[in-house]
């Protein structure tokens, strides 16, 4: 049956800012869907508040709205654009919830918009745990005993039935937020209360625990003719009890017999039919009792998901693309398989390799967070690895995480000090180090059975780990002598890197590499072809292994290898993947063959049709050099692009350069010049450009000396970091000593950078593109809303700048050009400036793509990364029509989003260490409107009325006055702590006095919990009252009350509240913004 | 598990070096590949693989061990077995023995540690090849020679090596023990209930009797027919049609089996007689090919066959697509069938014939395996269809 002809215009909703549990996999799926729908001639109206997505590139849709993902905004867009249908299944939980909201608000009916991909009924049955449970029971499928509670009393009644341990799952939250496992009544009370308050519908499901059962997922698809396929099965190494996003997972399932697997397949088919997903994909999770095979269905997502992105990458079967076509009415057998070309999409991929996904956590940024892994997802990213065997894929996966020393599985020293008892306890209560502890136990000689009894990890996996451990210990015992070729062959085939072999045998990596070559061991590349080689593959989607037959078949064309950014982490996420994709698009348009290397399954860059050739490989020197060498054998010139993937490829730049790999764009020496503090300081001095006084130190005494000469406060940080890792502001010597002790212990020999901290300065970010002729085009000067001291990634920023004097902007433009030329930048460059006491300083220069490139590109309509990639190939900016600095029409605000809600016990205060996971963009005609929209898009809806609570330190009091006055004028009731209230009263502003947390009760935290406060303005009051403030901020966050911790932020919020009174509902498509400016292409 | 070197040599002279993971010795056969990701034990014990060395494309094999409950016949019939990795342990509640023990106990020579994808690509590109596996010190030259001496599959009657010696009866009753009749183990946990799509035809009293020709029948066919309510009597492949008719069956089933259908004229003659007699017939795999021959069609050898659990087949009558389990090296030639036979199913991979039905007579067959085991259960409705075609007593 051909597709439906009654649909002309489709609304696609994205998933908004990157948060834990909802990352760039939805850009991957949304982008695929948009492309697939457009290829069918449909018009696309796209809404997503995340500017760092490929899907919001204006050429992917007819109408692109970077607007807040709220029912109100979408209603306005629907009214204006009149789509025939809404596809809600490619934008994660966000899009699904919005679809329900729009349907229930009557908006879809009013404007005749049909839900395609999943019906309202299907969404509700799948999402409402009670309905799901009833549906499963009605078709005879077991589910864990459970019930829904709307109050603590109801929950307590339920737990009597289901028993302990009990799982608490708040309804309609993302990635298990607010859920957990309770082992006793006290824990149960706490978790239930939290869950009830976090569920938007005040409902929790209390569920019988199947902790320790094996956990499986099936990625399935169904078409309107009831054809059904399983795309992939996934087995979690970490059994039930740990969120699948926090589990190491394997595809295909490893420990199910055919009888058991087919039973799951049959159940999946019945479930998708019963839930009523008629066209599209779904993810179904099962728990299987390892003792008797009993199966229970856990949940079903009637949409594409993180797992479906993983399954697509693991099999080569593009689930989101196919789902979009099915939603149009195509049958599976009418859609061709891109990879084989001759076979249809109605088949089940057969894979002849093993795929392992390993999560990446960022707990080091949240030292106070509870690291226990439970049903609430805490990881921020993941790496996927492909190998011919499980062992090979597993070791590749671990090295893809880029954890440095802490990734070492054996003799790492990390867990060595643990006694047996402590080790056993830590194996039982899993945290992010559990897999390393399993290896530590194996290294100590613990039996597989003993470890299995504690962890419930399937023995099959433990035996694999035991075999790896035996090899590692053999190597360790072997010592420094040359390793016999057959032993080396076994090690390499098992996935050991040259570096690991070197470390374990006490030799250096280069010596091992040369032994591997000497032994004639060759890395071969195999194709991911969906069919286990049954048909020819036309798509060069490759992974490495050690074997004789290589299928890489490099062409003779000249090519550029683009190094991606690896697993998402705070500080290095989707923004860099966006840039890498743009590089691939631009270079392809320039007629150069593109080769992508990356190991992040969530991304668009690892879609097999983004670059000409895709290597799904770890981003280490060994893995990357092997690819480059193989590609060179095709005969064309091979160069490498390291500027766009963040710190991951940049770290390899020097080594690649030394190995004779040409880098396109800015030279390795220039990169080093910008990264090397001493060289860089000298350069700025020569250019007579201001910089804060600075120095470097490798010891406590050196640090004291530097601080004495430049004066406190200082900013301290390790060299070569991204996202402000380990960065701190230090006000006095004792704190400096403490910092140095920690830093020197962590990485002896590496210098610590010490800069004078410019208190109360404004900060600005500049992104520019420079070409080889010395031409420089500034993409934009973005002004941070929060003052200096807060990491740029955590600061809201606005384009164009709104409080900076023109003469300073002139200085900034001039210095940007001079620095670009002096460094010899060819490509992208980012500079951070600060202005203090009317003086401009340069804080930092990064000769690479920055986090703000996609934001700027969306605001200006000029794809900067593409332009940079072309320039790096030798084009001039003038060739590209880029002469003047880029203008914007309108005001664009970028606002970060934070993961605090998932991390119990973590303070939400911002500082020099980046903590945000993603960002949203607000666009408007005025700063107030843009800021209000950005806040709303980031999930922080500013109040229109109510009580504003103000508690600020003495230093901030005078600046608070105009803010308080404005709030009062807007009709807010003011409330404050005693000191602040007195200050306000003295200036004619009456404010209710509320107790601080430790002053008595009811205090401000009580008032927040009771819903009496609608806005909190709280600047840090110093160490003494630190915990007092913290309880307040925590309460505000948990109850969704906006809590603003900087006065510049407060001023911006107040102007936004004012703006909301007038024109909150104005929306504008990017295409209209660009029509208003003389945008280039 | 000690690792002993072993190798595979092909008739084209190429060689793959690995380690042994089964019995010691030398074996030879036609080398084929199977893309199923589960179900190695069912594959090993499927008699249709007689004379063949089976390569699994799935890289990790043996993980969940082996159990008598998953046997598809009385012993493994493969000539040899090739995997990338053979699990040193079995990790599954159903397992009775690890795979390598099972292979050794049944004297199956097996090879692990080779690049199975390279071998598969060679077979795909050049078609199936004869090969020989040897463990220990046997030379490549000897193995290549052995491979070349292996009789080709075309013209081979392998059915006589796998069919049952004597007729036997099989039924499942609600109170039957797990180990059913004729030594056929049945795992009730995984015995699908009879599907509602197959209401017995009117006029059938009690349990209809199906006579099954055993050309190398997989036991799951018996289990499925029995679960649908049939009583079964299984006959050796060479049983004359008259003897079958004497049993007064309500229908006759033609099983799967190994080798070239064209090498079985004695079976084809019996099938013609049964068709003439108007008995309802249902054939699977080799049974389907033999039925086609009996109806006047021709068969041919596929380049590298269909072996796996993910083959899409379209039901041309309903438009539905089924994921099917397949294992065949021969197929019915398109256009060779007389006008009173219609093609009901086709492969969406290569458009070959996957099912046919006589326009007037109660005769139909499929090339693939509705009994699954291993593989998806999508085509299970065909047993119901057979049930409703059975003639009254």
Summarize, please:
The complex is a heterodimer of chains A (about 1100) and B (about 400). With about 1100 residues, chain A is of the alpha/beta class.
Topology at a glance:
The complex is a heterodimer of chains A (1081) and B (393).
Chain A: E1 9-13, H1 25-39, E2 43-47, E3 63-65, H2 71-81, E4 85-87, H3 92-104, H4 107-110, E5 114-115, H5 120-127, H6 129-138, E6 146-149, H7 152-162, E7 166-170, E8 180-182, H8 185-198, E9 204-208, E10 214-222, E11 228-236, E12 249-251, H9 258-275, E13 280-288, E14 295-301, H10 306-315, H11 319-327, E15 354-360, E16 381-387, H12 390-400, H13 420-428, H14 434-443, H15 448-455, H16 459-478, H17 485-493, H18 498-505, H19 509-518, E17 523-527, E18 541-546, E19 559-563, H20 574-589, E20 593-598, E21 613-616, H21 621-632, E22 638-641, H22 647-658, H23 668-675, H24 677-687, E23 694-697, H25 700-710, E24 714-718, E25 728-730, H26 733-746, E26 752-756, E27 762-770, E28 776-784, E29 797-799, H27 806-823, E30 827-836, E31 839-846, H28 853-860, H29 864-872, E32 891-897, E33 918-924, H30 927-937, E34 947-951, H31 957-969, E35 973-976, H32 978-986, E36 992-993, H33 1004-1009, E37 1015-1018, H34 1026-1038, E38 1043-1044, H35 1047-1063, H36 1070-1076
Parallel strand pairs in A: 1-2, 1-4, 2-3, 4-5, 18-21, 19-20, 19-22, 20-21, 34-35, 34-37, 35-36, 37-38
Antiparallel strand pairs in A: 6-9, 7-8, 7-9, 10-11, 10-13, 11-12, 12-15, 13-14, 15-16, 17-18, 23-26, 24-25, 24-26, 27-28, 27-30, 28-29, 29-32, 30-31, 32-33
Chain B: E1 4-10, E2 15-20, E3 26-34, H1 40-44, E4 52-56, E5 60-61, E6 80-82, E7 85-86, H2 99-105, E8 110-112, H3 116-126, E9 129-135, H4 140-149, H5 159-162, E10 168-170, E11 209-214, H6 219-227, E12 231-236, H7 241-246, E13 251-254, H8 265-276, E14 281-284, H9 286-294, E15 299-315, E16 321-332, E17 341-347, E18 353-358, E19 363-366, H10 381-389
Parallel strand pairs in B: 3-4, 4-6, 5-7, 6-8, 11-12, 11-13, 13-14, 14-19
Antiparallel strand pairs in B: 1-2, 1-9, 2-8, 3-9, 10-12, 15-16, 15-17, 17-18, 18-19
Helix pairs in contact in B: 8-9
């Amino acid at each position: 049956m051909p597709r439906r002809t009654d649909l002309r215009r489709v609304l696609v909703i994205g998933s908004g800012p990157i948060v834990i549990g909802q990352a760039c996999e939805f850009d991957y799926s949304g982008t695929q869907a948009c492309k697939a729908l457009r290829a069918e001639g449909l018009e696309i109206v796209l809404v997503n508040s995340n500017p760092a997505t490929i899907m919001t590139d204006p050429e992917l849709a007819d109408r692109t709205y970077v607007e807040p993902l709220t029912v109100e905004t979408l209603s306005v867009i629907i009214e204006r654009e009149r789509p025939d249908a809404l596809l809600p299944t490619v934008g994660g939980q966000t899009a699904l919830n919005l679809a329900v909201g729009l349907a229930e608000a009557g908006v879809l009916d009013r404007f005749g918009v049909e839900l395609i991909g999943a019906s309202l009924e299907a969404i509700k049955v799948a999402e409402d745990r009670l309905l799901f449970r009833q549906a499963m029971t009605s078709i005879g499928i077991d589910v864990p005993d459970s019930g829904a509670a709307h109050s603590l009393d109801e929950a307590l009644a339920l737990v009597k039935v289901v028993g302990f341990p009990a799982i608490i799952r708040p309804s309609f939250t993302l990635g298990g937020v607010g859920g957990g496992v309770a082992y006793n009544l006290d824990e149960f009370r706490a978790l239930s209360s939290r869950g009830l308050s976090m569920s938007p519908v005040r409902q929790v499901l209390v569920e019988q625990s199947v902790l320790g059962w094996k956990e499986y997922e099936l990625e399935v698809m169904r078409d309107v003719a009831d054809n059904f396929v399983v795309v992939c099965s996934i087995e979690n190494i970490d059994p039930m009890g740990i969120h699948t996003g926090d589990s190491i997972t394997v595809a295909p399932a490893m420990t199910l017999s055919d009888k058991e697997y087919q039973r799951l397949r049959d159940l999946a088919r019945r479930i998708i039919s019963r839930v009523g997903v008629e066209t599209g994909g779904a993810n179904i999770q099962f728990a299987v009792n390892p003792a008797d095979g009993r199966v229970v269905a856990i949940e079903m997502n009637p949409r594409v998901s993180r797992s479906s992105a993983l399954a697509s990458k693991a099999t080569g079967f593009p689930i989101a693309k196919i789902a979009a076509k099915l939603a149009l009415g195509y049958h599976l057998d009418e859609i061709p398989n891109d990879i084989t070309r001759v076979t249809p999409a109605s088949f089940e991929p057969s894979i002849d390799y093993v795929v392992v996904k390993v999560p990446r956590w960022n707990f080091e940024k949240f030292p106070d967070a509870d690291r226990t892994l439970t049903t609430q997802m805490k990881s921020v990213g993941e790496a996927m690895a492909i190998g011919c065997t499980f062992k090979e894929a597993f070791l590749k996966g671990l090295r893809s995480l880029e954890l440095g020393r802490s990734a070492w599985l054996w003799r790492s020293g990390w867990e060595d000090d643990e006694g047996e008892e402590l080790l056993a306890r830590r194996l039982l209560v899993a945290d992010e180090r559990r897999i390393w502890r399993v290896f530590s136990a194996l290294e100590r000689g613990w039996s597989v059975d003993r470890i299995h009894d504690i962890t419930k990890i399937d023995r099959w996996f433990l035996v694999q780990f035991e075999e790896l451990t035996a090899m590692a210990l053999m190597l360790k015992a072997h010592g420094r002598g040359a390793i016999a070729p057959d032993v080396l062959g076994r090690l390499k085939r098992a996935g050991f890197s040259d570096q690991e072999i070197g470390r374990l045998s006490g030799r250096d990596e280069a010596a091992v590499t040369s032994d591997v070559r000497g032994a004639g061991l060759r890395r071969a590349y195999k194709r991911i072809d969906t069919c286990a080689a049954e048909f020819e593959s036309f798509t060069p989607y490759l992974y490495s292994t050690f074997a004789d037959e290589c299928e890489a078949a490099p062409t003779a064309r000249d090519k550029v290898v683009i190094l991606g950014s690896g697993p998402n982490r705070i500080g290095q996420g989707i923004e860099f993947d966006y840039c890498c994709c743009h590089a691939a698009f631009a270079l392809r348009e320039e007629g150069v063959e593109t080769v992508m290397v990356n190991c992040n399954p969530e991304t668009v860059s690892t879609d097999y049709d983004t670059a000409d050739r895709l290597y799904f490989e770890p981003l280490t020197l060994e893995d990357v050099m092997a690819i480059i060498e193989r590609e060179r054998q095709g005969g064309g010139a091979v160069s490498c692009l390291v500027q766009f993937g963040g710190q991951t490829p940049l770290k390899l730049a020097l080594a690649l350069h030394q190995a004779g790999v040409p880098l396109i764009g800015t030279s390795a020496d220039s990169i080093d010049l910008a990264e090397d503090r001493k060289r860089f300081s000298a350069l700025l001095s020569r250019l007579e450009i201001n910089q804060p006084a600075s120095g470097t130190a490798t010891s406590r005494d050196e640090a004291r000396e530097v601080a004495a000469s430049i004066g406190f406060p200082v900013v301290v940080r390790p060299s070569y970091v991204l996202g402000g890792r380990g960065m701190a502001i230090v006000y006095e010597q004792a704190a400096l000593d403490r910092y140095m002790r920690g830093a020197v212990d962590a990485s002896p020999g590496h210098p610590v950078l010490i800069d004078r901290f410019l208190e109360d300065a404004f900060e600005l970010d500049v992104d520019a593109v420079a070409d080889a002729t010395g031409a420089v085009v500034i993409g934009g000067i973005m002004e941070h809303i929060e003052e200096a001291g807060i990491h740029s990634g955590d600061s809201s920023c606005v384009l164009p700048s709104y409080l900076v004097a023109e003469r300073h902007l002139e200085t900034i433009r001039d210095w940007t050009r001079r620095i670009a030329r002096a460094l010899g930048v060819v490509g992208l460059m980012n500079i951070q400036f600060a202005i203090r006491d009317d003086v401009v300083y340069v804080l930092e220069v990064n000769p690479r793509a920055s986090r703000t490139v996609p934001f700027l590109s969306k605001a200006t309509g000029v794809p900067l990364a593409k332009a940079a990639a072309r320039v790096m190939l030798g084009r001039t900016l003038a060739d590209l029509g880029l002469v003047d600095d880029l203008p914007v029409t309108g005001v664009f605000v970028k606002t970060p989003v934070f993961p605090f809600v998932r991390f119990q016990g973590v303070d939400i205060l911002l500082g020099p260490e980046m903590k945000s996971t993603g960002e949203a963009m607000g666009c408007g005609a005025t700063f107030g409107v843009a800021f209000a929209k950005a806040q709303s898009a980031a999930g922080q809806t500013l109040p229109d009325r109510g009580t504003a609570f103000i508690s600020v330190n003495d230093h901030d009091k005078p600046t608070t006055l105009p803010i308080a006055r404005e709030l009062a004028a807007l009709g807010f009731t003011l409330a404050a702590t005693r000191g602040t209230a007195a200050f306000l009263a003295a200036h004619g502003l009456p404010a209710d006095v509320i107790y601080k947390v430790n002053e008595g009760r009811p205090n401000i935290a009580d008032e927040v919990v009771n819903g009496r406060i609608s806005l909190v303005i709280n600047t840090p009051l110093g160490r003494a009252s630190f915990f007092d403030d913290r309880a307040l901020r925590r309460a505000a966050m948990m109850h969704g009350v906006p809590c603003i911790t900087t006065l510049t932020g407060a001023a911006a919020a107040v102007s936004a509240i004012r703006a909301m009174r007038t024109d909150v509902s104005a929306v504008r498509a990017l295409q209209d913004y660009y029509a208003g400016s003389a945008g280039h292409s | 598990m000690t690792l002993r070197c072993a190798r595979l040599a092909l008739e084209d002279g190429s060689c793959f070096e690995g380690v042994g993971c089964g019995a010691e010795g030398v074996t030879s056969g036609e080398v084929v590949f199977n893309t199923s990701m589960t179900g190695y034990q069912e594959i090993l014990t499927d008699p249709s693989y007689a004379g063949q060395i089976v390569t699994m494309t799935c890289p990790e094999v043996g993980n969940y061990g082996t159990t008598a409950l998953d046997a598809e016949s009385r012993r493994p019939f493969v000539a040899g077995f090739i995997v990338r990795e053979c699990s040193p342990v079995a990790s599954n509640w159903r397992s009775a023995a690890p795979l390598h023990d099972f292979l050794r106990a049944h004297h199956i020579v097996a090879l692990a540690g080779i690049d199975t994808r390279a071998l598969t690509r060679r077979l795909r590109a050049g078609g199936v090849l004869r090969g020989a596996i040897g463990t220990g010190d046997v030379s490549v030259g000897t193995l290549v020679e052995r491979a070349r001496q292996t009789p080709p599959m075309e013209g081979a009657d392998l059915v006589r090596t796998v069919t049952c010696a004597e007729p036997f009866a099989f039924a499942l009753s609600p109170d039957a023990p797990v180990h059913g009749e004729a030594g056929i183990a049945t795992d009730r946990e995984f015995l699908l209930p009879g599907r509602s799509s197959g209401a017995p035809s009117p006029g059938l009293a009690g349990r209809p009797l199906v006579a099954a020709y055993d050309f190398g029948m997989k036991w799951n066919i018996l289990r499925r027919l029995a679960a649908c309510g049939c009583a079964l009597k299984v006959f050796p492949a060479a049983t004359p049609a008259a003897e079958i008719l004497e049993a007064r069956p309500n229908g006759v089933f033609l099983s799967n089996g190994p080798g070239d259908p064209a090498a079985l004229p004695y079976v084809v003659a019996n099938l013609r007689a049964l068709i003439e007699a108007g008995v309802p017939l249902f054939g699977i795999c080799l049974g389907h090919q033999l039925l086609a021959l009996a109806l006047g069609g021709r068969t041919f050898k596929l380049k590298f066959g269909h072996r796996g659990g993910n083959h899409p087949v379209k039901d041309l009558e309903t438009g539905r697509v089924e994921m099917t389990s397949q294992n065949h090296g021969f197929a019915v030639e398109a256009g060779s069938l007389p006008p009173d036979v219609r093609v009901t199913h086709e492969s969406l991979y290569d458009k070959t014939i996957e099912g046919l039905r006589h326009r007037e007579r109660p005769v139909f067959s499929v090339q693939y395996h509705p009994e699954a085991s291993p593989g998806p259960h999508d085509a299970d409705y065909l047993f119901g269809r057979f049930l409703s075609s059975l003639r009254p007593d």
